Each structure stands twice: as structure tokens, then as C-alpha cells.
Amino acid sequence: MNTNKLKKGSFNKNILTQEQLNIHTYPEQEKIPSVLEVPKSTNSKLSKFNDIDLNRWKEYEEIITDSLWLLGKRDNSGVHTGELHGNFIPQIPHQAMLRYTKQGEIVLDTFLGSGTTLIECKRIGRNGIGIELLPDLVKRAKELIAQESNLHNVKTSVIEGDNTENKTIENVKKTLNENYNSDTVQLIIMHPPYHDIIKFSDNPNDLCNTKTTDEFLNKFSQVVKNTYPLLDEKRFLVLVIGDKYSQSEWVPLSFYTMQKVLENGYKLKSIVIKNISGNRAKRNAEQLWRRRALSGGFYIFKHEYILFFQKR
Ligand SMILES: C[S@@+](CC[C@H](N)C(=O)[O-])C[C@H]1O[C@@H](n2cnc3c(N)ncnc32)[C@H](O)[C@@H]1O
Questions:
Q1: Nearest-angstrom CA–CA distance, 66 and 20
Q2: What's the 192 CA to ligand 1 centre distance in angstroms?
Q3: 3-state DSSP call for residue 210?
Q4: pTM given for the model
Q5: Which of 113, 172, 249, 264 falls between 20 and 30 A from 75, CA-CA?
Q6: What mean pLDDT comes out for the span 34-45?
Q7: Rounded mean pLDDT, 179-202
Q8: 194 CB less than 6 Å from ligand 1?
Q9: Of the CATH numbers 3.40.50.150, 3.40.50.1220, 3.90.460.10, 1.10.1410.40, which one belongs to the domain with range 45-72+87-311?
Q10: How many CB atoms within 10 Å of residue 305?
């Protein structure tokens, strides 16, 4: 039976395919993005904040422009690794940087973790600075970043520190001045802990150890304020975040943090919903969650948010 021809209101036992539902699953990450490879046209029409030649827009197939990202498995190529529980898949900074920076520009990741953003910077030719609180993660991120080859000859720096503190921001400024000959960056990426759902450490300055949602949001807001002067006018901030449950309640951390960014000099450009796809171990746990969801009257998290803001 051709399910495309279902009459309105009719019921089909067969599950509709993604194609029939008009849902596009994005391909695995390409080796060299066409934005780097496609030669610019003679009268190239370039935007102010990326290398996309609008005269050749049809050739940039890897660039996602829909607000629903159904990404396949994580890009584990090269030194990219999923070893840090709670790191994001490289496709996220990859897409953000292709869309919102030009080659050679500078990206700041304020919650660097295991260094995914800076590894990706080296791959596609962006300079990058990352802030990370935990010394062990700083060490590991530096190791991984150093292993990635530097074909585009970019600079990367990992700064150990608490991103809510002025002295860390002063360190970023000093690094920018001394190593990058600049006062500002052209893209900020933030992937904070989703409050307390993963315990990254016992460090009291770790946002995962804030006692309440309000305290978490105040600290997050401080990071947005601290880094605001570092970003060039009209450039972009990308926030990756998910929601949480607490005491039988859905806590929309994504909407709360979005509000904090909006209150601090940014306008919202897009809300992207990204799928969370589990590994085999998670799939077993999923059966348990399904049982809990049915009895508790809630839905299981299958998505997180990528929020795109522009500095006013
Ligand atoms: C969700 S993880 C980021 C993962 C990262 N995107 C990656 O791919 O590896 C959040 C990170 O923020 C760090 N962090 C938490 N509080 C911080 C703070 N106050 N200053 C700097 N880093 C902090 C944690 O140690 C953790 O590594």
C-alpha cells in the first residue's frame, strides 16, 4: 500500500517513513566541507559573517538550514571522541562555524569540556579559544587538540578558569591581544552543564553544582555578560542546552537560559531542535524509561536545543 496516498483521517498500521513525513536526516559529516572547496564565483556574493558565496548556494549541500536537526551518529573521525560523558557531537560546532564565521576568524567556547570545538576549529580553519574550569579536562582537551593536524595553520588556546570570574575573562583578553593580535572574537559557543543532570566535578564553581535553578541561571547569565564585550557587533552566540526533570516537573532550562541571553544584549535568530540518539546501552535503559514515562505521565527527552542569537 502506498502510504503517500492515505486519505485524510484514515488510519495506517504501517509506520510512515521519514520521507513520507517529509523529515530529512542529515548525512554524516563530510570530509572537507564544500564551503572550503567550492571556488568562489567571479562576482561572488559573500555575506559579512561566513564564506558562503550566495551565487553558488546550491553547491553547499552540507549546510543545514532547517530548524529540525536529525543528525546521524556522532562524528568520531580523527581525534574526536565521545569519551567525556556530556560532550556535544562535533557536527554542532562544525555547522555553527561554517554558517557564522569566515576562515581565519576567532571562536570562543566558554565551556570547552574535552575540546570538541577547538578540534573542529583546526579541521576547518578557524582560530579558537576555550575556557574550562577543570584541570583534568584542560589537560585532556590540550592533548586531543594537539593530536589534530593543523592544515590551515590556525591558533588554539585552552584557558583554565572559572568563566564567571573577571580574572578568567582578563586572561582571555590577554591571550587575544598577545597571540591573536585582536580584542574581539567573531563567534561565541556555549554548551553549559544542563544544571545538575551530569556531575562533572565536585568543584563548587562548576555550574553543575549550583544549588538551585535560579543560582544556575544567575551564573550562566554572568558568563553571557562577561563575554558580551568580547564579541564583535552583529556577530553570533550559539547556545546548546537541554531541559531537565525535577520532582515530577519538566524544567525548561533551554527557555530560561534563552531569556538570560536575550536580556543581555542579543536578539534571537533561530531555535533549532536536535535529536538525541542513544547508543545500545542507552536503548536498554530506554525501555525502563518508557515504563516510567507511561506511569508518571511524562514524555522522554529525545531532543535538545541549539539556540542562535545575534549581538544587537
Ligand atoms: C556540557 S560540558 C561541555 C562539553 C563540550 N562541549 C565538549 O564537547 O566536550 C560543560 C563543561 O563546562 C565546564 N564548566 C562548568 N562550570 C564551569 C565554569 N564555571 N567555568 C568554566 N567551565 C565550566 C564543565 O567542567 C564541563 O566540562
A1: 17
A2: 6
A3: coil
A4: 0.91
A5: 172
A6: 80
A7: 97
A8: no
A9: 3.40.50.150
A10: 19
